[in-house]
Specification:
The complex is a heterotrimer of chains A (about 375), B (about 600) and C (about 375).
Chain A (H helix, E strand, L loop, with lengths): L1 H21 L1 H21 L7 E7 L4 H12 L3 E6 L2 H9 L5 E5 L3 H7 L3 E8 L3 H25 L8 E8 L6 H23 L1 H8 L1 H6 L5 H30 L8 H26 L2 H18 L12 H6 L4 H14 L4 H25 L6
Helix pairs in contact in A: 1-10, 2-7, 2-10, 3-6, 7-10, 7-11, 7-12, 7-14, 10-11, 11-12, 11-14, 11-15, 14-15
Chain B lengths: L11 E12 L2 E13 L4 E5 L6 H8 L7 E6 L2 E2 L4 H7 E4 L11 H11 L7 H12 L14 H13 L5 E5 L7 H17 L3 E6 L10 E6 L2 E6 L1 H7 L4 E5 L4 H9 L4 E7 L2 E6 L18 E4 L4 H16 L19 E12 L2 E12 L3 E5 L6 H8 L7 E6 L9 H4 L2 E4 L11 H11 L4 H14 L15 H13 L5 E5 L7 H16 L3 E6 L10 E6 L2 E6 L1 H6 L11 H17 L1
Parallel strand pairs in B: 3-8, 3-9, 6-7, 7-8, 17-21, 17-22, 19-20, 20-21
Antiparallel strand pairs in B: 1-2, 1-4, 4-5, 9-10, 11-13, 11-14, 12-13, 15-16, 15-18, 22-23
Helix pairs in contact in B: 3-5, 5-6, 7-9, 8-15, 12-13, 12-14
Chain C lengths: L1 H17 L1 H21 L7 E7 L4 H11 L4 E6 L5 H7 L5 E5 L3 H7 L3 E8 L3 H26 L6 E8 L7 H21 L2 H8 L1 H6 L5 H29 L9 H25 L3 H17 L12 H6 L4 H15 L7 H24 L3
Parallel strand pairs in C: 1-2, 1-3
Antiparallel strand pairs in C: 3-4
Helix pairs in contact in C: 1-10, 2-7, 7-10, 7-11, 7-14, 10-11, 10-15, 11-12, 11-14, 11-15, 14-15
Classes of the chains: A alpha/beta (about 375), B alpha/beta (about 600), C alpha/beta (about 375).
């Protein structure tokens, strides 16, 4: 009987593989979808402001103002544009031509020489608060380097008493792509995993093929397992392609070991496929399965996974909710593996969470798929 | 004979089988206390119209559904207690057999051999035997999706038989299969019965197939209407079936006869009208109909369908529902036999595949014109081209003087269209569907209200007016679909498989209506794969593989098959004759 | 003609809303997601866990530590005694930053030399890393200027007087929550139209429509208006929640916002109908909807600015209606924009809508098999 069960299983497996080979849509979901999305979006997502258009308004140009604006000209973060007066600069900001205004009033140099503390007006467009904050930080940097340079020039000590050094671990270039791309992989794999399986069970229900299978001696778990194995391999293939694109095309460092990456990806893939299987077994028709897949995968994985929005910044209740999003764990793992390495204190708890989710999804899919039609 | 060994336990024993379904708010009883026995070694027909509960019963026996009451014993095992044990011993071929269309014939066989635990050693012999039996030998490498409907069914049957079952459940294996394949399927079953000790339960909506079974279970609306040998059914109405003829046109005659007291059923059969009377003693037919004093009745042997209709009729009278009378003509008949539809040298290709191959025909006003053929013969493609839904690859066509694909929207207002499967908006109520389609056909104000009222009254829709249309029984869906297509009193009516799946009574009612419409000058173009429905047509074409194989009036076409052995061939005989002739011609 | 369109509209609305599952899917998740995402989607730092390794145990350094413990941005979870646990704490994400105060801190301060302070930041989320540095720098600057003032040291020649226009407290909810209006409106619109034609094709009712005297234009209106209506109503609810629940100021003309909403829903409807009529099966329609929705959301400027994208991707965003609508929403809400300020956003959406709708209508008849 053991041999018969094995033969049933290999028969089902062979069937799944043949179908995948002949129906290009599964291959498209596994390889084309991640590759295309990663290539386009990977080029697109970045939070790093570079060459920010900034309006410089200098009402009385002299050597001091020139030394200050010179620092703006040199900064890679800014693309300074000159405006004659504050009104025209404000108009340019309203029209979206500049993101910030740096304004040196007419008495700037006089006050700087007299008592110091001469105010430099900085107005940032606060609509994109994140961008605005980054711009403020950059302006501050320009200002403090200018202060230090001025002091050196005059042979004085820096007017600021602190010597602040920053060391950014893992991502010294503070390039946002380095952490967004690993998150993006997690996001795309969520979609791929769910889409691969969300429709397959529903399709068998709709086409009536499941009915003929059911009446043979095959067990439901054999059917589900035979579905899981090939799509798991496909998903892992898509994952490998994504990692390759990230490393070789986008130049993201890969500091963790491939073994850990493979292991954790496998756990995540099981959870994502399990979720798809669950949706599929629950909906039994492709239309509803599709709608549920759209609603439950993309936006939650986009917003609640820590992909762009830091989970630590969310309110407690929302942080709690993020625990049901599998992508959340995978984003943490991938960001750590890519940028930090095999940090077990991050990987182990997240991997455990993924394993639990995989077990829950798969067990639930198994539990609601009876070998019956009702 | 197997039933001469009563000491053997029955292969299948049903006791008070109950099954309900919940759709939306309502509890629908699919099977209501079915008790029956199927003897070992017989072919038992499970016969009834669509929605009778055949598939539900099959699934219950296969252990795929839970019983709500009663018990089922199959091969001595209780199905509820040991579904896996039963499944190991039976073969089940669902209505849409789960062939994987993207796997080849051979790969499908391999899969089911693995699933049924057929040892690799015995596979070559088993495959060879089954492939030979089904005639699929030359096609082992072909994808199952590219087989014809008949071949798919045969492959499904082969897959079910890989591990020889003791009980074989076949759920409507002959639906949508052309008559030639249907005949072959039956030959396979008969061959199996001779060589093995198999028990077969065979469900079908084709009543003529009952006559091929050893025993029959007659199912209607979830209840067992009768069981026994097919001969016992026809015996009941012995002496009550006649062929009527008169000077009167056959349609008018049929209409008059069906409203004559004492006549249960009147349908057109060839140039005659087939009549079933309520009792064997009949008065002089000459007095039945004023317009037809020359009415003559010739006794004819009863068919299984006659007995089914008679039984249904008795039941209908018990429950008090009545068969609707013939509708009055919609408008005065337009005389003249000008061409309303003309098709010349029409072809349609999909890639390499030629769906319609150089066909020509024309239809006159007030005619009922039939397109006859199996699924995939090109009927629907032709139909869709006529309705302007599909552009032809070459050739020309005109409907009421227009090419509907290019004509202004107003031109489409002259046609009525009833799609396959009665495409209604399932989520909307009956009333909403009527409102929507009448608006779509540009009716408004009092006239729209009039027509909706007309439809409600004419098609007896009042009791179901607020029901969601997807929950309706098929017969009601068909009525509603026809009502929607007639809202705007079209000159031309397109009907695509209008009666598939509908029970014989509803079919009769439907054809009475269509006859009435034709009488009043409406031109009707209809496709069907029910051969006997061809009898209602004035003209018909038989199509196969995109070509027209024969054109003419039904009598003329039947004449093709007339041989000394079959002096009075049926339409099915004619169809087979027509199909087989050119096939041979092609080979030579 | 309007009567037929009205009939189509009623039919579509009933079809969408009479099915319980559809109703739940269209109304429940968007509203739940509004609430969850409205709070979740933020770039603002709040109680970031940090550790401090103070090697200089003096009043001056304790004062600096107090600046950090008093800040709402930071949450000092550990005071370290040695530098050994620093890497572990950061690697395991227990803290996002460690502030290391050098043993020479007070000595240097008092002697007028720059006092060394080091920030070790977790760079895995570089955006958070930059923000942490920015906040920490602010605190350090305040401390430095206060120290200078107290000690009578000469002030720096110039100081920054920073102000943010339109969003003075730089609350990123003001940026994100109006964006959710666009996000959810697009989701609902796509759910309604994305598969509607494909579904009718599969059930056969689409043929039935095509043989009635209805014209393509009528069918187009009938298919498009429901999403406009439902999308419009849901958008209104979300806008109301944005204003009254999330307290985002609405400074511009509501009419200008609604005109943008109209064009946005029209253009998304056009794209959805195009996908839907191009697809032969519902499965293909679903894949198509996904392939459109994912990039269109991520590359819309919703979370990451378009200006940061590589050039060819920026060109790609020109065909993304959400890009324009996001600008409209934010300009109207925060910048108080009126009609005239938004023409540059209106017309591209109108063009996208027109082209896709015409294509969809053309496909109604063309794509038959």
């Amino acid at each position: 009987m053991k041999g018969a069960a094995l033969r049933r299983f290999t028969g089902l497996l062979r069937k799944e593989f043949l179908q995948i080979l002949r129906d290009p849509s599964a291959l498209a979901i596994a390889f084309v979808l991640p590759a295309v999305l990663l290539l386009i979006i990977g080029q697109g997502v970045s939070l790093d402001a570079r060459g920010v258009p900034v309006a410089l308004v200098v009402q009385h140009p002299d050597a001091l103002t020139a030394s200050f604006t010179g620092h703006f000209e040199q900064s890679p973060y800014f693309r300074p544009l000159r405006y004659r007066d504050i009104q025209s600069a404000e108009a340019a900001m309203a029209a979206g031509k500049v993101q910030a205004i740096v304004w040196l009033p007419s008495d700037f140099s006089r006050r700087a020489r007299a008592n110091g503390n001469s105010p430099i007006g900085v107005i940032v467009n606060g609509v994109d608060a994140n961008d605005a904050r980054l711009i403020e930080g950059y302006v501050q940097q320009v200002w403090s380097t200018w202060l230090a340079a001025q002091a050196r020039l005059q042979g004085k000590r820096s007017p600021l008493p602190l010597d602040v050094a920053a060391r950014v671990r893992f991502n010294p270039g503070v390039s946002s792509r380095d952490y967004l791309v690993p998150g993006l992989i997690a996001l795309i794999m969520t979609l791929t995993g769910a889409l691969l399986t969300a429709l397959v069970m529903a399709r068998e229900w709709e086409r009536g093929t499941l009915e003929a299978l059911m009446v043979t001696r095959v067990k439901m778990r054999e059917i589900l397992l035979a579905k899981l194995v090939p799509y798991f391999l496909l998903g892992m293939g898509g994952m490998a392609a994504s990692v390759a694109i990230a490393v070789f095309l986008f130049g993201i460092p890969m500091r963790g070991s491939l073994l850990v990456l493979t292991g954790t990806s496998a756990l995540f893939m099981l959870a994502a496929l399990g979720m798809g299987l669950l949706i599929s077994s629950f909906a039994r028709n492709q239309f509803v399965a599709g709608q549920i897949a759209i609603i439950t995968t993309f936006l939650p994985a986009f917003i609640l996974s820590g992909f762009v929005f830091d989970i630590d910044s969310m309110p407690q209740v929302v942080q709690f909710i993020t625990h049901i999003v599998a992508a959340r764990y995978f984003v943490a793992i991938l960001q750590t593996l890519f940028l930090a390495g095999d940090v077990w204190s991050v990987i182990l708890p997240n991997a455990l969470a993924l394993a639990i989710m995989a077990v829950i999804f798969l067990a639930a899919a198994r539990a609601i798929t009876h070998k019956r039609l009702d | 004979m197997p039933n001469e060994r009563p000491e053997k336990p029955p292969a299948l024993k049903l006791e008070a089988v109950q099954r309900h379904f919940r759709t939306n708010k309502r509890l629908v009883t699919a099977l209501d206390g079915i008790s029956a026995e199927v003897e070992e070694g017989t072919v038992t027909g499970l016969i009834g119209p669509d929605g009778a509960g055949k598939t539900t019963l099959m699934r219950l026996i296969a252990g795929l559904l839970r019983l709500d009451g009663g018990s089922i014993q199959a091969l001595g095992l209780d199905v509820s207690a040991d579904p896996l044990g039963v499944q190991g011993k039976l073969g089940y071929m669902p209505q849409r057999f789960g062939l994987y269309e993207d796997l080849s014939v051979r790969e499908n066989l391999d899969l089911y051999a693995d699933l049924q635990g057929v040892a690799p050693a015995i596979r070559p012999a088993r495959y060879a035997e089954l492939l030979h039996m089904t005639g699929l030998g030359p096609f082992t490498q072909r994808m199952a999706g590219r087989l014809s409907g008949g071949m798919k069914q045969k492959l499904g049957l082969a897959c079910t038989l890989l591990h020889p079952p003791e009980l074989l459940l076949l759920d409507e294996p002959t639906v949508g299969v052309d008559p030639v394949s249907r005949r072959e399927l039956w030959q396979i079953i008969e061959h199996l019965m001779q060589t093995t000790s198999l028990t077969v339960l065979f469900s079908t909506a084709y009543l003529d197939e009952a006559e091929r079974c050893d025993a029959v279970l007659l199912l209607h609306e979830g209840r067992l209407l009768g069981s026994g040998k097919p001969g016992e059914f026809t015996k009941e109405i012995e002496g009550r079936s006649y062929l009527a003829s008169s000077q009167l046109s056959r349609r008018r005659l049929q209409a008059r006869l069906s409203s004559t007291p004492g006549v249960i059923d009147a349908i057109i059969q060839g140039s005659h009208v087939r009549v079933i009377t309520a009792s064997t003693t009949t008065s002089d037919p000459a007095g039945w109909i004023e317009e037809a004093p020359d009415l003559r009745l010739t006794p004819t042997p009863p068919r299984f369908e006659d007995s089914f209709v008679a039984r249904l009729h008795e039941q209908a009278q018990e429950t008090g529902s009545s068969v609707t009378a013939m509708p009055p003509p919609l408008k005065s008949a337009n005389d003249g036999d000008d061409n309303v539809i003309s098709v010349s040298r029409l072809s349609r290709r999909f890639g390499d595949f030629v769906a319609v191959n150089d066909i020509s025909f024309s239809v006159n006003r007030g005619q009922i014109f039939g397109l006859l053929g199996a699924n995939g013969a090109g009927k629907s493609t032709t139909f869709r081209m006529l309705c302007g839904l599909l552009p032809p690859s070459s050739g020309s066509l005109q409907v009421a003087g227009y090419d509907l694909r290019k004509a202004a929207a107003a031109a489409r207002g002259r046609i009525g269209y009833m799609a396959q499967k009665f495409s209604l908006y399932g989520d909307l109520s009956v009333h909403r569907n009527l409102r929507f389609f009448s608006s779509a056909y540009r009716l408004k104000g009092a006239r729209q209200q009039d027509r909706i009222d007309w439809a409600i009254q004419e098609f007896d829709l009042k009791p179901i007016l607020n029901d969601t249309s997807k929950d309706l029984p098929l017969g009601f869906k068909q009525r509603l679909a026809l009502a929607c297509a007639l809202m705007h009193e079209p000159d031309i009516l397109f009907l695509d498989e209008p009666t598939s799946g509908v029970d014989p009574l509803a079919r009769r009612e439907f054809w009475r209506r269509i006859n009435g419409l034709a009488e009043s000058g409406v031109t009707v173009l209809v496709t069907t794969h029910f051969m006997e429905e061809a009898e209602y047509c004035d003209q018909l074409v038989i199509m196969a593989q995109g070509r027209i194989l024969a054109t003419g009036a039904p009598e003329n076409i039947k004449r093709i098959a007339r041989t000394p052995e079959t002096p009075d061939p049926t339409m099915e005989d004619a169809f087979i004759a027509v199909i087989e002739t050119p096939a041979e011609a092609d080979v030579t | 003609m309007w009567r037929q369109v009205l009939a189509l509209l009623i039919k579509e609305l009933l079809t969408v809303l009479s099915d319980r599952k559809s109703r739940v899917v269209l109304i429940g998740p968007p509203l739940i997601q509004l609430m969850v995402f409205g709070y979740a989607a933020t770039f603002d730092l709040n109680k970031v866990p940090i550790a401090i390794y103070n090697q200089d145990r003096s009043a001056a350094s304790r004062d600096l530590v107090a600046h950090f413990t008093g800040s709402p941005t930071f949450n000092v979870v550990a005071n370290l005694k040695s530098e050994k646990p620093i890497d572990d704490l950061i690697d395991s994400r227990e803290v996002r930053m460690v502030l290391v105060i050098d043993p020479r801190f007070t000595r240097n301060l008092l002697s007028g030399h720059p006092a060394p302070v080091q920030m070790i930041v977790d760079g895995r989320n570089s955006n958070t890393a930059l923000l942490i540095q920015g906040y920490a720098n602010n605190i350090l600057n305040d401390y430095a200027l206060a120290w200078n003032a107290r000690k009578g040291a000469p002030p720096p020649p110039a100081v920054l007087d920073m102000r943010a226009r339109f969003n003075p407290t730089l609350d990123s909810h003001w940026f994100i929550v109006p964006g959710i209006i666009a996000l959810l409106t697009q989701l609902v619109t796509l759910l309604i139209v994305g598969m509607s034609v494909a579904r009718e094709r599969e059930t056969g009712t689409f043929d039935q429509l095509l043989v009635t005297p209805l014209r393509q234009f009528d069918i187009l209106l009938g298919k498009g208006l429901p999403s406009l209506l439902i999308g419009g109503i849901e958008a209104t609810v979300i806008i109301a929640a944005t204003v009254w629940w999330f307290d985002i100021p609405l400074r511009g003309e509501l009419l200008a916002l609604y005109f943008g909403l109209l064009l946005f829903v029209v253009s998304v409807t056009g794209i959805g109908l195009m996908i839907s009529s191009l697809a032969v099966t519902q499965q293909q329609a679903l894949l198509g909807a996904f392939l459109f929705m994912v990039p269109s959301v991520i590359l819309s400027g919703f979370a990451t600015p378009i200006a940061n994208m590589s050039e060819w991707v920026q060109y790609l965003t020109f065909i993304n209606p959400m890009r324009y609508f996001l600008i409209i929403v934010r300009k109207v809400f925060l910048e108080g924009a009126d009609f005239s300020a938004l023409t540059a956003q209106y017309w591209p959406m109108a063009v996208i809508g027109l082209v896709t709708l015409i294509t969809a209508a053309w496909l109604f008849r063309k794509r038959l098999s």
